[in-house]
Amino acid sequence: MELSESVQRGLQSLADPSLFDLSSFPVLVDVSFRSLLSSHADSGILDQPELKHIDQIVLKQSHAAATTFILEAVKQNADKSTISSCLEEITFSAERIEIFHSAYQKHKKELEHLLASIGRRPPHITDVSWRLQYHMKNGHVHKVNEPFYLISLNVENGDSGGSSEDISFSCTMEQLQDLVGKLKDAAKSLEKATQM
Amino acid sequence: MEEVDKILIHALRQVGTEVSDDVQSVKQFTSELIVEAVVRCVRVIDPGLGGGLPASLPPGMSARFRVGMSLAQACQDLGYKGEIGYQTFLYSNEPEIRSLLMFLVEKLPRESAEASDQPAGKSVVLQRAISAAIKAQLALPWLPPNCRLPLLCETQSPGPLHAFHTQSLSLAHNVKCPEKKHFKGMPLTARIFDYQRDILPPVTAQASHHASVAASILEQHMAELSATQEWENEWNSQGLLSRLTPQDYRSRKLTRLQKRIEEQLRSAALLCPESAIGANRSNSDLSELLQSFRGTAPTDHLLTKGTHFTHTQKFTFTQETAAAASPMPSGRQSEGDVQVRQQEELATLQQQLQQLCLDVDQLTTDMKQMNVTTAQVWDELKKRELGNSEMEERMRVKKKTIDLLPDGESNLVKLQALVEGSAKRVVNLASQWEKHRAPLIDEHRRLKELCSNQDRESSRKLSEIKDLHVKIREAAEEAKKKEGLYKQLITELENLPQDVSRSAYTLRILEIVGNIKKQKEDITKILSDTKELQKEINSLTGKLDRTFAVTDELVFKDAKKDESVRKSYKYLAALHENCSQLIQTIEDTGTILREIRDLEEQIETENGNKTVANLERILEDYKAIRQENSALAAKVREG
Asked: Where would one find coiled-coil regions in this protein (chain B) (predicted)?
């Protein structure tokens, strides 16, 4: 795991027993996790009684470094050995690594959700209803006599919690065949992607 | 044989043959399975050869025959030496199929095993992880939203999403450079410190939308990382060669870039043809911009120029505002009146403004012209003054010459003496100078040499340092790669099926090798025994021959004298002949026995091959094909 210079500096001050003693270290770690996971921004999150005696600049640096480190670790799905080797390099003691790691394990799932919620995702097709219609004639042509399909895809949208309007369209037989072929192709390439 | 079969089945499964779990040995293979296995092996060994082969047996007899023949041909093309025909596949017998499969499995390429030794890159690892995740998600069934368990919720209804949106964050950091700038009585750094200590919110509270906090932090980190990487690249490629400290290098680059930007902007501003005011304005903007680039070190030239133009600009601007401010409503009049008046006033004022602008322009141009003329006049003045002083000098010399004229002779002598004295002094000084100069030049040369030596040394060290850098990076990369490979191999090892126990195989192989050794020893023992026996027989035969010869001679000598001895001689000859006949018979019996044994073995193998049954089957096949053919012929005739 690569860390930038500012993050390394912040973590080094976090590892320094003269700056963060054993009562304030767990508080800062906890605060870092909470500030990432809380649903609203709280600018007063660093105003903890245990952190009063620490210089605010150092505190803010360490907080920024800790949050960055946490997010990077979750992003790379780091396991315990990676995290501890990385923290050992920045002179964390074994005790502090243990404290950090237990907090990390506790919040990892939520953080994964947090990271997974960044981005967008097209709606999922969950069901389909169809109707075959027959186009006999129209105002311009006396005899058309073509079948066509009315397709309505029931979709589930992740954004709005599972409910959304359906997608409806009509298509000719060739278009429908094309669509089915494309879907089959997609399924096949998905299968192929699993056999790496 | 069991283990051989297991290995064979394992290899066949790897090739892609679907061998069901209850098939444990080659004996249980059906014709279809054999054909599929052989076809898959051939396809892997030689895709061109196996491409045209169908993986399953067709129903028709003649088609089956054709498939069998082509398979046999393919196997022979691959170099299989044993007996093979279409019946091998259709009416299999165990040993033949086993030897064929062993041959094919041995022929299988082993690249896959070697390829896994290569360290997989990051992307490969990532792709594998992705494919594993897709596989896991495909294995889960889809459920309607109401029935989802928490496990499924994770992948099938991931909750609300936030678009990727980042914001730049400001981090608290130590301001090191002690700048002399003061702001409202306090040093700027102290101000920054105060701001960072008391006002700057923590990073997680800086983003305007809380949802973008994670993305912003990650982006910030990535940006820092890539910036350091880029700097390192540049430093290693160019910075080290310039032999400057990093700070010097940076500042030099900064000034260079500033100059470049300035030039570019200037040339761009000159190129675009605009009205006078517009050009002035853009010029003033440009100079301001340039000043802001320079930050702490503005040049005087730019400053004066900038102020000049800003003054004109300010002037026009205040005029405008004044013009806009003056037409305020002065009384209660009808709106139309007011409007008309206002418009008139506006028009007049605009006219005034234009007039003033024109005046200002003219004045500016006048001023410029004046400036130019002033400079020209100054130049001329200076020139004149110079000429003046020159003239004065000349006049003084002439005056002195005139003063000296009356007493010409003596003065000339004096002057000559003076000139001679000065010439001597000059020579003297020159010799002294030479005396001083030689050691100084030597010193200079010495120092120069030293300097170049040091230069060379430093460049050598520089290249060494560069080499070391490269080596360090390489080593680090290697270590990282090795670590990654180690991890990957460990995961692979964990994922591997544990049923194939390697140590058991090796033990088994060692045992077999031991057995073979023992057998070999036995064989050599028997061979040596046989040789000994042969020797004994030979020696005995020789002895017999000699004894017989001696006896024969003795008896023959006596036989001339005595009738009974002659008889005994005859008996002796007969005995000898009979014995040799006997030996011959025994030997013949031995060879015949051996032949019998060989033949029995052959019969056994033939019996094992089920030749008769196979022949019958082949005959039946032949009949079936003939029937099919006749049916086809009948159809053709009918048609």
From this structure: 339-366, 462-492, 596-635
Confidence category of residue B290, pLDDT binned at 50, 70, 90:
low
**Buried b or exposed e, range B412-431, using 16+ CB within 10 angstroms:** eeeeeeeeeeeeeeeeeeee
Q: Is A1 on the interface with B (CB under 8 A)?
A: no
Helix, strand, coil: what percent of chain A each, to 5?
55, 15, 30
β-strand partners of A172: A148
Domain end position, chosen among B69, B98, B125: B125
CATH no. for residue B95?
A: 1.10.418
d(Cα B399, Cα B472) in Å, to the nearest integer? 83
Mean pLDDT in chain A? Answer: 85
| Alpha helices (H) along B272-299 | 276-294
pLDDT at position B315 over 90: no
Instruction: Output the pTM of the full model.
Output: 0.50
Query: Does A156 contact B142 at a Cβ distance shorter than 8 Å?
Result: no
Do residues A19 and A100 both lie within one domain?
yes
Instruction: Report the Cα–Cα distance between both ends of chain B, in Å, rounded.
Output: 55
Show the tokens assigned to B234: 């540049």
How many CB pairs below 8 Å do chains A and B form together? Answer: 138
Between the two ends of chain A, the Cα-to-Cα distance in Å is 25
Q: Which residue of A has its CA nearest to B194?
A: A57
Whether B212 contacts A74, CB under 8 Å: no
Give the residue on A whose Cα is nearest the Cα of B162.
A118
- Picking from A122, A126, A194, the residue whose alpha carbon sits closest to that of residue A158 is A122
Report, as an integer, the average pLDDT of B86-104: 80
Tokens of B185: 């009585």
Pairwise CB contact (< 8 Å): A7 & B135: no
Number of other residues whose CB lies within 10 A of the CB of residue A190: 14
- Residue closest to B323 by CA, chosen among B341, B348, B359, B303: B348
Domain shared by A112 and A182, yes or no: no
Closest CA to B38 of B59, B20, B16: B16
Number of residues that make up chain A: 196
Strands A146-156 and B182-183, bridge-based pairing: unpaired
Over residues B126-171, the pLDDT tens digits come to 888 888 888 888 888 877 777 777 666 666 666 677 778 887 887 7
Instruction: Give the C-alpha separation, A90 to B207, whole Å.
Output: 28
Report A:75-134 residues touching B (Cβ under 8 A): 75, 77, 113-121, 124, 126
Whose tokens are 């450079």? That residue is B177
